Amino acid sequence: MPDPERILLVRLSHLGDVVHALPCFHALRERFPGAAIAWAVQPEFAGLLRGLDGLARVVPFDRQGGLAAWPRLRRDLRAFAPDLSVDVQGNWKSALVARASGAPRRVAPARRDWREPSAARLANDLAPPAPPEARHAQDRVLHLARWLCGPTTVRRDPSLSDAERAAGRARLADCVPDAAPPVLVQVSPADDVRTATDACLVDAIAHLFEARRGVVLVAAASEAPRARDLAASVVARTGRAPALVCDSPDLRAFAALLAAAGERGGALVTGDTGPLHLAGAVGLRCVCLSGPYDWRATGPWPSPRGVGDAPAPSPHQLPSPSPHASPHASPHRVLATDIDCRPCDARVCRRPGGRACLEGIDGATVAHAVLALDA
Question: To which CATH superfamily is domain 6-149 assigned?
Fold first, then answer.
């Protein structure tokens, strides 16, 4: 087939999955440099994509708009008139978006790699199944990109500009003025099953202060009250307050802050959430507190190697290998507790007694994992 002139990339949500789709965008840009590329995405994640080098258009899909959102979306897509759509999401919603675009060629993953396989019938060009070793969500996206575009350089960044990076450095310097590698601690909703306990985070920050590390609590504006409560608990224990960043909905500004921390040799402490993947994409090392999800499929990428599925002491630290152990050697660490019910991939914990998978991780272990990144 002739090279496409207009390509639609479909990855609507969530933040981590949008980040996982970035290598596919960069591969398309590299393989088809003359094509105009649009990206269909939900509005809350569109800000990360604006400013992306080579992206011609962001097509917002207002999922909260109900049925009225579909005619608007269809008009926008038909105005762009793609001749190729690439569905990176693999469910009914994304398949309907690709179909509504009118693209004559609709590429998607193999049926068995879809989250909702019955929707694969709406695509007309399916990639071969991802190999068994492509266990991580990022590896499956790379498999699709390489099948479509051929060998390509893996590029995951959101094309931060020099001005954005400078703003991120200045903001981080306001929070942590000394030269020690900063530690950012993600504050997520308390009712999220992937969220570490308050006691764990407070204890971890106290140990990091003892190690003379500057700490920044980062949170969405909606989680500012919890972040302030955590900071107050840290002050009560240590007499010292962590910095707070919880006032910016700008995903690119947040990415720039993470990138600045990476430049200074810092780290992010977080659960298996969107900021974990955004941090990895901009070069910030992560310590992932793995709860109910399978870190080998949705944790930091590249996944830490050198540990199999056999039980280990609880909790245990999964080390990254030497830089020469694998072409995907990981700079990250994962902390996980071996209990019989994990990974369960549940959104609500129904285990009697609570979330033992996260409650078994203590703050001293978290701080040790952060400091071990420099070992």
Answer: Glycogen Phosphorylase B; (3.40.50.2000)
**CATH class for the region spanning 163-372:** alpha beta
* Domain spans in the chain, listed from the N-terminal domain onward: 6-149, 163-372
pTM over 0.85: yes
- Rg of the chain in Å (alpha carbons): 21
State pLDDT tens for residues 156-197.
999 999 999 999 999 999 999 988 899 999 999 988 888 999
